[in-house]
Every structure is written in C-alpha cells, then in structure tokens.
Amino acid sequence: RIKASGLKLQLCTNETQATRQDFVRKLRAMGFEVSVAEVTAPAPAACHLLRERGLRPHLLVHHDLVPEFAEIDKTNPNCVVLGDAAENFTYANLNEAFRLLIGMEKPVLISLGKGRYYKETDGLKLDVGAYMKALEYACDVQAEVVGKPAKSFFESALAELGVPPEQAVMIGDDIVSDVGGAQQCGMRALQVRTGKYR
C-alpha cells in the first residue's frame, strides 16, 4: 500500500544473521515485492567504513553473514567487527576477539548494532549489544556502531530515498533503535506493537 501510494520506501534492518539477498528472498517468499536496493543494513555500511579507513577485520559475525564481507581484506586484522553471531558467541570466540583488541595499540571495535535483545518464534534472545558492552568493558574501548540507532545509519537510508529527515517517518517496534535513532536524526517515528515493542 505504501508503494502504491507513490511514497518512497526504504527498509532499515539491523539483520546481521543473513545477507541482504537472503533477507529479500525471505520477504519475497512472504509476498512482498522488495529489491536489495530498497534495504539499508549494517554489513554494507561496515564494509564501506572498512574500505574508507583501510581496516582489515577479524569477523565475529553469524556464518550466514560472512559473504557480505567477501570483497574485504581480512588478513592480519587491525580491528574487530561484531554482529549478531548467535551460536558463534562462544567463550573461545569472544576471547579471541578480546585478545586481538587488547593487543592493539589503538583498538578498533565496530559493532553492526547495539540492540539488547530481539524476538524469535521461541522467545527473546540476547542481541549483539550485550557482547559489544562486554568487549568495550574488557578492552576499555568505545565501539563504533554502524547499525541502528546510529545517526549515520539513518542518514544513509535517507540518502537512498533522496529526502531530508523532516520529510521521512520511521516505523518500527524498538523504542531505542528504531524510534529513538530516527528521532535523533531529525525524523518522525511511529512505534508498532509487534516484536519487542515492550
């Protein structure tokens, strides 16, 4: 209905367990006509930042997201990129990321989001923010967040739409990442009572 109305639409997701292509495939299977270009996601934003700054990441992300970083040099890492790694959030994997960061003169931690938790069909699950905070604390470093609620994330979505913030509305279920992030960027926002709206 939004597309039929003539309004511009951009899907902003903090999905970091799948590539944008997989995300779009899932939405199309549900009957939504969506293209990859209509999706703003953290992994491509992180890749842009890595290239721009000549960073080589150690990835602590979900194995299904790794293809998003195929074009990025990962040899001799000089930063850590953290996403919702799900089952990959083991002590050994977190400790490996910790050791890399603590061994750097100027540690760089890039997080694909900072959500506290999210909702799956079997209930609420810890999100990347909890693990990000653990590494920040252990390494005395401030993570750079490239997903929601980062202002730069919403600015990239607005750039894709070609509209200023005051002409856009963000609709989402997360009061901090969706609504708060959009409002800090100068957008209006609506909270829907689905997912983790509580």
UniProtKB/TrEMBL annotation:
Keyword Hydrolase: yes
Enzyme Commission identifier(s): 3.6.1.1
GO cellular component: cytosol; nucleus
GO molecular function: inorganic diphosphate phosphatase activity; metal ion binding; phosphatase activity
UniProt xrefs under SUPFAM superfamilies: HAD-like
InterPro entries cross-referenced by the UniProt entry: HAD-like_sf (IPR036412), HAD-SF_hydro_IIA (IPR006357), HAD_sf (IPR023214), LHPP/HDHD2 (IPR006355)
Membrane spanning stretches: none
Record family assignment: Belongs to the HAD-like hydrolase superfamily.
Protein's name according to its UniProt entry: Phospholysine phosphohistidine inorganic pyrophosphate phosphatase
Organism lineage string: Eukaryota, Metazoa, Chordata, Craniata, Vertebrata
Record gene name: Lhpp
